[in-house]
Amino acid sequence: MKVFKLDFPENMTIDSDDEYSLAIGFFDGLHKGHQTVITKAIEKAKELSIRSAVMTFDPHPSHVLGGGENKIGYITPFKEKKRLLESMGVDAVFVVKFDMQLASLKPSEFVELFIKSIGAKHVTAGFDYSFGLKGAGTMEDMKMLSAGVYETTIVGKVTDNADKISSTRIRKLLSEGNVEEASLLLGRNFRTIGTVVGGEKKGRQLGFPTANVLPLEGSILPENGVYAVRFIVDETLMNGVCNVGVKPTFNNPDVKSPMVEVHIFDYDGDLYGKEVSVEWVKHIRAEKKFESIDALIVQIEKDKKMAIEILAEG
Fold first, then answer.
1. Model pTM?
2. Pair 53, 103: CB distance under 8 Å
3. Which of 22, 76, 214, 270 could connect to 81 by a Cys-Cys bridge, CB 3.0–4.6 Å?
4. Per-residue pLDDT tens for 209-235?
């Protein structure tokens, strides 16, 4: 899959003469609604015998339009988004730098610079996609501005239990620790990619060694607590129990951001420096402070037993 990075106005050249069926949107999460849009673009590409492509943006528009004050955590950082798009069979991805210069373009200017110029012959987006200055451009405008160069498909609202499937809804579920429902809306288990780093070795001292995972920058994490998880390293999937949080029992003032610590069942290898993935299967309990280390050990054993039972169910 080719990746093209566009930065208006400095870098607008792509090394390709291909024609594209283009799906356009930010697509954070690549949830079931996004998948519907992208699948339709892929189907249209096959119908027209052209290449399929996705156009996305970086950083999140809300971050830029909010003057840098809105720190938006990504459900799918670009590395994960790229993996998922490849698995869907997308031929190319256009990553457009989102800044105030881009946000200031009129809808007609956006179409000329970012749709027609890249060889788009068909554009697919959700019914609520907007573009151009103050989001004035709608998909009806996209169709009107084509001047016959490309066709359009507008995808209606994709729902679950009558509610729209959206990245905002998934973020809220994750903030509540509801990884099960979030995963239903995503169409797969919510996943965190990161690198195994050194830790304080508290888990090993307690008899439950853990892999300390440093997530990709900008990743969103579920609410602090204990979860049944699947752990993936070198394409090998293993089961585990994970604590995400600040370890209040140890009352370490140096820990200000949540840490992801995974106890992998039946594994004793060296993982330091490896890129891994954590798939969040089910929330077990909230993080809490225990009165003693012994009480914590007893609880961890219970958490492990529960995680084994959950993961055995598939």
1. 0.91
2. no
3. 76
4. 889 999 998 899 999 999 999 999 998
